[in-house]
């Protein structure tokens, strides 16, 4: 069933999303310290190295640190009303545990906010987006240590004091549930995954959840009108067959992700998670103060959506899929991207309805997009990328977003991931492109860093201008 009469609501926020470590570059400029990304030159699939290496494309990224004004002007040309970006923790506190912040780092984000304000673009700020200071990983074992709560609180307090009057929308942690599958990138936990106990992993998760709730409380106290959201990696999981055992396996996979939203939205641990911890022999150190802090629930739920998965209880039927960070089983009836991510527009409608019915909190799609190999060509004397495949992908997903709105879902906005080409988080390469804007840099670090508008640039500009009315 399709409802073509429903439109996107007035004031719907349209824009794009990025992360500091994937586009800024300037990894050692103006007092910035090293982050965990500086020892991840090959992305999440390879173990971290000892220190920065020349093959780490993130050291330069796409040089947003020096070209932010040019890039924001291009976003404005598309009609963005919101831009999601993150503030690099190690640019503000180089080691993460200092008493005082780095003024040069703070001043950079002042300049970014100046440009956004000049163009009338609302900032959506992620406080921690896979870029924990390396010192906190090496010295404290990241979020496995309770001490990180205090360091994160100081970081967030500094941001609220400096930018609180300029930023309304805040996200505490990017894809917080990804720590289950990428403990170093997501949680800065230096213990090798094969040696990491469930006890230490879930204690680290608890520390992050407490920190998120504490900072939510702080934002409400310090920033009048602040809207604070959690951010979840959405990966809807379908049973591979109608076998009830497969249905249960899918439900259990969903529970692993629901838990993070349930705690953020309801302020307490759900019963199914308590059972999981009991059966794993995990006894968390949860203080009375922790329980009190967790009651500070979020104002909205944001999430990334790229693909869906299947699950089965039959080991013989398991063929691992490539979707984002999670494993699961590839869906036999759906096509996949060049990187093996299942393409499932209807899954986005399912997630929107599922999350809305479960939490009754406004939702925000803060990542969605297609990573693909783009070719720069000349059309009518202009260099561009004819990325009809990206237009088709985004159109089909946004049609399903419109359907979810017709279903009654309260949705704040949509920020397409990697609105300008940037370094991939999963593979740390540049050939996996998401943007409406092509950046001339390749996997070997060669290129002019010049920007070129893709065909999808004009398409997205028209979508925004019509508030989604032109979607096919």
Automatic annotation (TrEMBL):
It comes from the Bacteria. The active site is at 367 (nucleophile). Keywords: Glycosidase, Hydrolase. The keyword Hydrolase applies. SUPFAM superfamilies: (Trans)glycosidases (SSF51445). Belongs to the glycosyl hydrolase 1 family. This is 6-phospho-beta-glucosidase.
